[in-house]
Design goal:
- By secondary structure, this protein is an alpha/beta fold.
- It has one domain (about 50-270).
- It has 6 helices and 11 strands.
- β8 (about 220-225) and β9 form a beta hairpin.
- The longest helix is centred in the first third of the chain and has 35 residues, at about 10-45.
- The chain starts with 10 loop residues before the first helix and ends in a 22-residue tail after the last strand.
- The chain binds prephenic acid.
- Prephenic acid (PRE) binds near residues 53, 57, 58 and 86.
- One of its GO terms (molecular function) is chorismate mutase activity.
Amino acid sequence: MSDDPAQLPSLDALRRRIDAIDADLHRLLMDRARVIDGIVAAKRASGAEGVMFRPDREADMMRRMVERHAGSLPLTAVEHLWREIISTSTRLQGDYRVHLDGGADIAAMRDLARFYFGFSVEMETPGDAADVVGTVAASVSDLGIVALSERADLPWWRGLGTDGAQIVARLPFFVAEDRPADLPAVVICRPIPGQEMPDTRVFDARWIGALPGSLMNSGIEVLSFFRTGDGVDALLAVSADMTEEDVLAACIEAGAEPDVLRPVGGYAAPIDIDPGAEDEFETGGWGDPRADEA
Ligand SMILES: O=C(O)C(=O)C[C@]1(C(=O)O)C=C[C@@H](O)C=C1
């Protein structure tokens, strides 16, 4: 485009283009809502009921969004617009509430919840993280968001299991310096019909003794841990390529012999979108290993 002002398109012409694009966007959004009506009918016909949230499908869509994205528009702005659209589409399929962990920084928690689940969904704060797990487990279709802190005040994940409330997504999904709504958290809900095995599995592991720093070197990320009287109760994330036996062997090798090792869900690994970053978000996000800290 020429820098000569006489050659530049006029402001009026540019605004007419914006108006045409906005009309296209609006038409496409209405078309999309009509497709959602069809999705509701297809899900009903297949007998799916309860939770309508499909984090595996959403993760696929977001990976493709990263691949095709270009230009000056921040990717997290596209992510936010799209989250409002998709969470509205989820609500069109049936009512649900989002229960927030009241033990977290409440302003950061609400920012995260609104960023990911929009402004039309009803949100409640039933209490601490364990209350969120209990409320979601007793619901039909609700979601919960629990903040991840390195050292937990309580082992809230003990209430999770594969047939009740379980971890289904990790937030934020796009990892970047200075991104908005950046509180580390997990989404929990009851079992999702037809859900594919995510690329990251999560375990509740308990053992007597310290938290060995070398766990990190065995491909195990400690999402959070709680110090019990004589040991550790930890929430561990591993690649889904590792079997439960592999995880057990890796823990023992690192010096943590679990007397409890239970799967409590899984999630699609977040994507690092910072320029020049590796393709995939690496596990081990808490910085230095905490050798023998607990
Ligand atoms: O694909 C589905 O199963 C949908 O319900 C549609 C849709 C969407 O709006 O694209 C909505 C909610 C799900 O979490 C995933 C995707």
